[in-house]
Amino acid sequence: MPGKKKEATEVIAHKVSDLMLAKKARNIRILDVRSVTPMTEFFINCTSDSHPQTKAISDHIEDELRKDGVKPWHIEGIENREWILMDYVNIIVNIFSQKSREYYQLERLWGDAVITEIADEDTV
After folding, report:
1. Exposed e or buried b for every residue in 7-23, given b needs 16+ CB within 10 A?
2. Residue 124: inside a domain, yes or no?
3. Strand 26-32 versus strand 114-118 pairing type
4. What pLDDT does 3 receive?
5. pTM of the model
6. Please, which residues have CB within 8 angstroms of residue 40's CB and are 6 or more apart in sequence?
7. Residue 3 domain-assigned?
8. Is residue 32 domain-resident?
9. Does residue 1 form part of some domain?
10. How many domains does the chain have?
11. Are 94 and 46 a contacting pair, CB within 8 Å?
12. Nearest 10 degrees: CA dihedral of 87, 92, 96, 101?
């Protein structure tokens, strides 16, 4: 349908990518898995350069989404900060160290998804 409004979940997914950019996350990708699995609608993946940055990205996402009344169902990985997973049910946020991102290769695992790369204006 032409001019169809973006679904709320898709709007939140793009907001998450903007929040990642605000904390200088790299290699941000939104994976639209709605046609691939009933488990969730979107994965949003990014790479962080350090443990403090990983924590800052996750805190920023959680704080800003809470302001909109969007709360995580579950968060894990805060302790070791190699891979923080934030489960918002319809959106799964993954914040990886470079090493963990290369090891798990989630984009390859969900290769049938529609993948949108989010570029920082400084790198375009």
Report:
1. eebbebbebbbebbbeb
2. no
3. antiparallel
4. 40
5. 0.91
6. 33, 89, 90, 91, 92
7. no
8. yes
9. no
10. 1
11. yes
12. 130
pLDDT for position 122: 56
Crossing angle for the helix pair 8-22 and 51-67, to the nearest 10 degrees: 140
Residue 124 is predicted with a pLDDT of 43
Q: What's the confidence (pLDDT) of residue 7?
A: 86
Q: Looking at residue 11, what is its pLDDT? A: 96
CATH number of the domain where residue 83 is located: 3.30.460.10
Q: How far apart are CA 39 and CA 49, in angstroms?
A: 29
Range of the domain at 59: 8-118
Residues (pLDDT < 50) of the chain are 1-5, 124
Does residue 88 contact residue 65 with C-beta atoms inside 8 Å? yes
Q: What is the CA radius of gyration of the chain?
A: 14
SS3 for 42?
strand
Give the pLDDT score at 4.
Answer: 46
How far is Cα 88 from Cα 97, in angstroms, rounded to an integer? 21
